[in-house]
Design brief:
Blueprint (H helix, E strand, L loop, with lengths): L1 H4 L4 H8 L9 H13 L3 H12 L6 H13 L3 H13 L10 H12 L3 E5 L2 E5 L8 H19 L7 E6 L2 H6 L5 H7 L3 E4 L2 E5 L10 H18 L5 H11 L14 H12 L19 H35 L4 H9 L3 H14 L19 H5 L5 H15 L3 H14 L4 H13 L3 H14 L4 H13 L3 H12 L6 H8 L6 H10 L6
Parallel strand pairs: 2-3, 3-5
Antiparallel strand pairs: 1-2, 4-5
Helix pairs in contact: 2-4, 3-4, 4-5, 5-6, 6-7, 8-11, 11-12, 12-14, 13-14, 14-15, 14-16, 18-19, 19-20, 20-21, 20-22, 21-22, 22-23, 23-24, 24-25
Length: about 525
């Protein structure tokens, strides 16, 4: 019964609809398939099964609950909210939906005025206003992710893939079981649940975040939900999602190398303080610190990278099949590998111990846009002498004295050459002062250690453009947009480079208040 739910679609529904009246499926069979469809994250097939059920059976309180869930998973939040109102009017019914009632009602209220853009099997919902500019990039990512990730995991969605973009942390918290505090503490800005992908707008964080890879990360979760009927543990879900989140833009699966996370992992191995995988339950978002969350991601993704490298894509798919059949995830991976779990774990830890020490890098905190300024970022500069130089440089910069500011930033950079905040400020001032070549070394050093630092990516694009290295400028500008699409400068640069979407980028350059190069 569970495995059939993976293939609920036209063929299955057709077989039900052509059954003779005397051979109609038992009500428990149809409801079982319906519930399994929801477990697989498939709202539309669940709706069709429900319609078929109601052709033959009465609409009880339990059926209304399933109707609410099917509508919620299919994205019809108004109908789901109406169903909850109906349940509440019936004094005889006691809903089994629990806290999901509040989630459904909050989702309807939050999104009822959102815009919707549909392209093929993909749907993006967003709050009217600035987030409109995210839609084309999101659609392209969804299309690429579907092609790459469905092949990796051996499963395909029937229902339309729905991405919802929320303008701030508060909105994301309202439509999920996350709290703003959890978002702030662990840096969690996205999730996949109830058949949809949910992310906070990159505008919600001071310098954005890798939002396009995050969309792909959540797409992995959506496919894993279907592949295992939502039975895979958090460590397996997050390990595969992190490992495969860049697959949409690469020809092969490979783990993104993040020096700060690798530093955490290295230190944990040396101190014998690796987290037990079960500590991640029920969510990495509920771990006590951003460091703990980053370590958890680093651990489980490196484990899945090791497993994938040794046994391949087919082995991962076979293990997921077993998990969907009810097998314990550890036992499933070990069974497919043909070795005990303890040996798999030992091999992984031995591989970790043999890794060379990563370049020194610290975990940069994620600041919510409405709670932080550049001065809060400045507080993260570890060396006090450098921090004082930067503070003076900032004062001069805000008073339109870039040359004088650059001198102070240069002193800060000399004192703390590895600090990403200092290097980005110095590079920005060097470019403004007509010395783009002086910005290159600090920026390259920064991005070697902090590859997702959006200010450095944007400045690198500008510097490369100024010295006429246009291919490198294009690459850096594209990466910058994948982290902070509300920075006008990368759009302005792309508009001058003859890319196919040059006019679109020019419009965004103007709309966001940039000055065309």
């Amino acid at each position: 019964m569970k495995r059939l739910a993976l293939f609920v679609g036209c063929a299955l529904l057709g077989s039900i609809s052509t059954s003779a009246p005397a051979e109609k499926p038992a009500s428990s069979d149809v409801l079982g398939l319906l519930e399994a469809s929801l477990a697989a994250g498939e709202g539309v097939p669940a709706q069709l099964l429900l319609q078929k059920y109601l052709d033959d059976y009465p609409r009880t309180s339990r059926v209304i609950e399933l109707e609410v869930l099917a509508e919620f998973y299919a994205g019809d939040y108004e109908a789901a909210a109406d169903g909850i109102a109906e349940l509440r009017q019936d004094a005889r019914s006691e809903t089994n939906l629990g806290q999901l009632v509040d989630v459904i009602l909050n989702t309807y209220e939050t999104t009822k005025n959102y815009e919707t853009f549909t392209h093929g099997n993909y749907e993006v919902r967003y709050a009217p206003g600035p987030d409109e500019i995210l839609v084309p990039y999101a659609i392209d990512t969804l299309k690429a992710a579907a092609e790459a990730l469905e092949a990796e995991l051996g499963v395909k969605m029937v229902s339309p893939v729905r991405l919802e973009i929320y303008p701030d942390a508060e909105s994301l918290a309202r439509v999920s079981t996350l709290s703003v505090e959890a978002i702030r503490t662990t840096g969690t800005i996205a999730l996949c649940k109830w058949g949809r992908l949910m992310i906070a707008s990159p505008a919600a964080l001071m310098h954005g975040y890798p939002w396009l890879d995050t969309i792909a990360h959540e797409y992995v979760h959506l496919l894993l939900t279907k592949a295992t009927l939502d039975q895979s543990p958090v460590w397996l879900q997050e390990g595969l999602a992190k490992f495969l989140e860049t697959r949409w833009r690469q020809s092969q699966a490979s783990l993104r190398q993040d020096p700060a996370s690798n530093q955490l992992l290295h230190d944990a191995v040396e101190a014998n303080e690796l987290l037990d995988f079960d500590q991640l339950h029920p969510s990495i978002a509920l771990l006590p610190t951003q460091e703990a969350a980053s370590l958890a991601f680093a651990q489980v993704s490196s484990f899945m990278e090791t497993y994938y490298r040794e046994y391949g894509r087919d082995a991962v798919q076979q293990a997921l099949y077993l998990v969907g059949e009810g097998e314990d995830a550890r036992r499933a991976l070990a069974t497919v590998a043909g070795v005990p779990w303890t040996k798999l774990e030992m091999r992984w830890k031995q591989a970790l111990a043999k890794r060379p020490k990563p370049p020194a890098a610290r975990l940069l905190p994620r600041y919510l846009s409405d709670e932080a300024t550049e001065q809060d970022e400045l507080a993260g500069v570890e060396l006090e002498r450098a921090r004082n130089y930067v503070r003076l440089g900032d004062l001069l910069w805000t008073r339109s004295r870039p040359a004088a500011a650059s001198m102070e930033y240069a002193k800060a950079h000399q004192a703390a050459p590895s600090d990403p905040v200092v290097a980005s400020r110095y590079a920005r001032s060097a470019i403004a002062g007509g010395r783009p070549e002086d910005a290159l070394a600090p920026l390259m050093r920064t991005l070697d250690r902090y590859p997702t630092h959006a200010p450095a990516l944007s400045s690198l694009a500008t510097a490369m453009f100024r010295i006429s290295k246009f291919d490198l400028a294009k690459g850096a500008a594209t990466q910058a947009i994948a982290h902070n699409p509300f920075d006008p400068q990368p759009h302005c640069i792309l508009s001058k480079l003859g890319v196919p979407q040059a006019q679109h980028e020019a419009n965004l350059c103007s709309r966001l208040g940039g000055i065309r190069e």
